[in-house]
């Protein structure tokens, strides 16, 4: 089995390593009892440090750690000594002194992880729960798991990622993962305002027109629109214009293959990037993604800590 020290970027993993993590996630999902793995991380302590809000990632890491028997410590930034100026590194060193060996961190800071990996103890593991607009590796893994479960493989697929690509760590990690898995066609769709720097999305194509980009898609990943970014966009793009042109509606879904699946990392802005009928429709696998998130995080924690 693979041995991971940290998990920060999917581009650091090989195809066989991703397949092993997905296989292990499926193994956890297929278990008859969620409690049968309760000794795997017994006596291990894991800390969660979230410097940005989260519902799914934070809760699913907690559920995953608990199902594996680990002790979890949740540091609430607003009530912690970070408010008194303590650095993240000092917080980690203090928790290391208490025996904590894994740190699950969400940050809006572009420059947190790279210095940290050199400064933390040799037995300390860092797991990104989302880094600025750069990386969200466990989201990428749960998206890959969902696609593999639904479509069987990656190579022959057309996967469309639509929305605010330029600010999306979800898009970046998923594109990295799909690239490693040799997906034939990964198409990014957004208004010009949200076109990303394409060097961060190797082996993908860009399309501004959803009608062209969605044609024959097997998988559509819609992204949350950060309303404040629309409101501050230089080209006077309005939310109404955005949803008229880019909302995944039933009409746009018909441009895709009849068996296309609809994904969204959450939280959703219903009625903006996705219609209610599509979000709750029979092609939606959005809650399946959430279920897979627990299994993927169990797999990551066991591969790193066991
Ligand atoms: N998908 C995701 O990262 O959701 P949260 O922000 O709720 O964790």
Please tell me about this protein's structure:
This protein is of the alpha/beta class and 306 residues long. It has helices spanning 15-29, 56-67, 88-97, 113-119, 137-151, 169-180, 210-213, 227-231, 239-246, 250-253, 276-279, 286-305, and strands at 45-50, 71-76, 102-107, 125-131, 158-162, 185-189, 205-207, 219-222, 261-263. The strands form 2 sheets. Strands 7-6-5-8-9 form a 5-stranded parallel beta sheet. The longest helix has 20 residues, at 286-305. The chain is globular and about 55 Å long. The site of phosphoric acid mono(formamide)ester (CP) has 10 residues, from α2.
Share of residues in strands = 5-15%
* Percent range of helical residues: 25-40%
Order of helices and strands: HEHEHEHEHEHEEHEHHHEHH
Sheet/helix structural class:
alpha/beta
Give a count of the beta strands, DSSP E runs of length 2 or more: 9
Which radius of gyration do the C-alpha atoms yield? Answer: 19 Å
Q: What attributes characterize this protein structure?
A:
306 residues, alpha/beta, 5-stranded parallel beta sheet, 4-stranded parallel beta sheet, 12 helices, 9 strands, binds phosphoric acid mono(formamide)ester
């Amino acid at each position: 089995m693979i041995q991971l020290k940290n998990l920060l970027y999917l581009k650091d993993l090989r195809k066989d390593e991703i397949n092993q993590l997905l296989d292990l996630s499926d193994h956890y999902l297929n278990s008859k009892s969620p409690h049968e793995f309760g000794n795997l991380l017994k006596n291990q302590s894991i800390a969660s440090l979230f410097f940005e809000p989260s519902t799914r990632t934070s809760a699913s890491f907690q559920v995953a750690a608990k199902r594996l028997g680990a002790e979890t410590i949740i540091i609430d930034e607003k009530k912690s000594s970070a408010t008194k100026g303590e650095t993240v590194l000092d917080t980690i060193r203090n928790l290391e002194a208490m025996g904590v060996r894994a740190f699950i961190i969400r940050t809006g800071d572009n420059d947190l992880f790279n210095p940290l990996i050199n400064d933390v103890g040799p037995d300390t593991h860092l797991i990104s729960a989302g880094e600025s607009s750069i990386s969200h590796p466990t989201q990428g893994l749960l998206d890959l798991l969902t696609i593999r479960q639904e479509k069987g493989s990656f190579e022959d697929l057309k996967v469309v990622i639509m929305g605010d690509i330029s600010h999306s760590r979800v898009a970046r990690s998923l594109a990295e993962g799909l690239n490693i898995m040799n997906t034939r066609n990964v198409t990014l769709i957004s208004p010009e305002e949200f076109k990303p720097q394409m060097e961060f999305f190797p082996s993908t194509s860009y399309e501004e027109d959803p009608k062209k980009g969605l044609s024959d898609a097997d998988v559509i990943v819609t992204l949350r629109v950060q309303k404040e970014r629309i409101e501050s966009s230089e080209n006077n793009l309005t939310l109404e214009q955005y949803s008229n042109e880019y909302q995944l509606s039933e009409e746009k879904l018909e441009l895709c293959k009849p068996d296309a699946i609809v994904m969204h990392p959450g939280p959703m802005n219903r009625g903006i990037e996705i219609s209610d009928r599509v979000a709750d429709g029979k092609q939606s696998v959005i809650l399946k993604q959430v279920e897979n998130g627990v299994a993927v995080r169990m797999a990551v924690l066991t591969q790193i800590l066991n």
